[in-house]
Automatic annotation (TrEMBL), chains A, D:
Name under which the protein is recorded: Molybdopterin synthase sulfur carrier subunit
NCBIfam families recorded: moaD
Pfam families: ThiS
Gene3D superfamilies, per the entry: 3.10.20.30
Native species: Belnapia mucosa
Region forming the signal peptide: none
Keyword terms of this UniProt record: Nucleotide-binding
UniProtKB/TrEMBL annotation, chains B, C:
A Pfam family assignment: MoaE
Keywords from the UniProt entry: Molybdenum cofactor biosynthesis
Entries under SUPFAM superfamilies matching the protein: Molybdopterin synthase subunit MoaE
UniProt EC number: 2.8.1.12
UniProt-listed PANTHER family: MOLYBDOPTERIN SYNTHASE RELATED
Family annotation (Gene3D superfamilies): Molybdopterin biosynthesis MoaE subunit
Family: Belongs to the MoaE family.
Protein known as: Molybdopterin synthase catalytic subunit
Assembly information from the UniProt record: Heterotetramer of 2 MoaD subunits and 2 MoaE subunits. Also stable as homodimer. The enzyme changes between these two forms during catalysis.
Purpose: Converts molybdopterin precursor Z into molybdopterin. This requires the incorporation of two sulfur atoms into precursor Z to generate a dithiolene group. The sulfur is provided by MoaD.
Catalytic activity: 2 [molybdopterin-synthase sulfur-carrier protein]-C-terminal-Gly-aminoethanethioate + cyclic pyranopterin phosphate + H2O = molybdopterin + 2 [molybdopterin-synthase sulfur-carrier protein]-C-terminal Gly-Gly + 2 H(+)
Domain of life, source organism: Bacteria
Metabolic or biological pathway, per its Swiss-Prot or TrEMBL entry: Cofactor biosynthesis; molybdopterin biosynthesis
């Protein structure tokens, strides 16, 4: 599973992307956030307030209940501010 | 209608992009454009734009197709710059062409409202005093996008 | 804000006009434009535009000032061509600059809607078969202008 | 009094402008239209259907009741079709 981080989520986690292999109990975006939060103080800081985090699964916006699987590309980032 | 979508560090050329949508054709009656620029609010040194390569282009292509379904568009161009941009620099260009003016004007407003809330770009402001902060999403941008939702 | 208003036979340059409104300043956040072009409906050979010199400039200046009173504009350009224009030719340009995008987009739409009904221009269509006819005013243009009236 | 004609009004009248000196009984736009209509078959044709005619007095749009005076610039034309 490939995980990407953008903007201040990337800065707090301390990396732009990583390959992870969470246990099978991690089935959705919310579960992945909980699992990633335990990986480092940086991860914990990035995901401290899940309300400020948005996610995409395979490049589509995805809510906390969206399923995640081994070959997915998952991205975490703040609310977007383009335009 | 195949939209032209570009994410780039380089500046864009409004005149050239406009000419590209109308060159050699005589069915375009209206061409609407919006250019968003980097304002120099109180000591801003630069705006740094980051995006999600791949998802950005997909998301913009999808919304351009949605616009083409809602309005009879003859052409549509979206160019969004990324990287470090000084105050005064153009950041984003939306161009829409249609046979009638209302379709061009409305779809242009629709696309720029959507880009503020639906495309994976993030802005960081760098200040003259060396500090930096990520721009926070605005409730008014969500409201602007929401007004285009089907009733 | 002093609007730039021009009535001319010559083409206009969207890129140059746009640059003129933003050159050397860093307070413009949004620049909206509309270009109206001559469509080649079924055998149209040319559009011939006539206007009322003097009154045209006065009327456009007045409506540009009204727009500046309704929206916080930092710049406004209206260029309208007259004379004989072939299919595909640009006819009219409206450009508005503001610190915020909604003001630029709305004032641009307001001005082009108004130009259709409030400025003394008349269009004659010349056809490939040698006939000509004056374009008639459209009820939909009156409706578009009416939607900007104060409630 | 200077009178200007535009678009098909000009074509029907057969001239772009003229200097006229109507009698004092001509006090408003409607009165001027009636008086001009009697000047030639072209004028009569141009003003045959007053509902299709718009007027300006001294470069401002003016209705049929708008007063007209000796030094005014009066223009007659069809509904506008610019933009």
């Amino acid at each position: 599973m490939r995980v990407l981080y953008f903007a201040w989520v990337r800065q707090r986690v301390g990396m732009a992307e990583e390959e992870v292999a969470p246990p099978e109990t991690v089935r959705d975006v919310a579960g992945l956030i909980a699992w990633l939060s335990a990986r480092s103080p940086g991860h914990a800081s990035a995901f401290a307030n899940p309300r400020t985090i948005r996610a995409a699964v395979n490049q589509d916006f995805a809510g906390p209940d969206h399923p995640v699987a081994a070959n997915d590309e998952i991205a975490f980032f703040p609310p977007v501010t383009g335009g | 209608m195949t939209p032209r979508i570009a994410i780039q560090e380089a500046p864009f050329d409004l005149g050239a992009e406009s000419a590209r949508l109308t060159a050699g054709r005589t069915d375009v009656g209206g061409l609407a454009s919006f250019v968003g620029l980097c304002r120099a609010d109180d000591g801003l040194a630069a705006m740094v734009l980051e995006h999600y390569p791949g998802m950005t282009e997909r998301a913009i292509d999808r919304i351009a197709q949605e616009a083409a379904g809602r309005w009879p568009l003859l052409g549509c161009t979206v160019i969004h710059r990324v990287g470090r941009l000084p105050p005064g620099a153009p950041i984003v260009l939306v161009l829409t062409a249609s046979s009638h003016r209302a379709a061009a004007l409305e779809s242009c407003a629709f696309l720029i409202d959507w880009l503020k809330t639906g495309a994976p770009f993030w802005k960081r402001e760098e200040w003259a005093d060396g500090t930096a902060r990520w721009v926070e999403a605005k409730a008014e941008d969500d409201a602007a996008t929401a007004r285009w939702a089907p009733a």
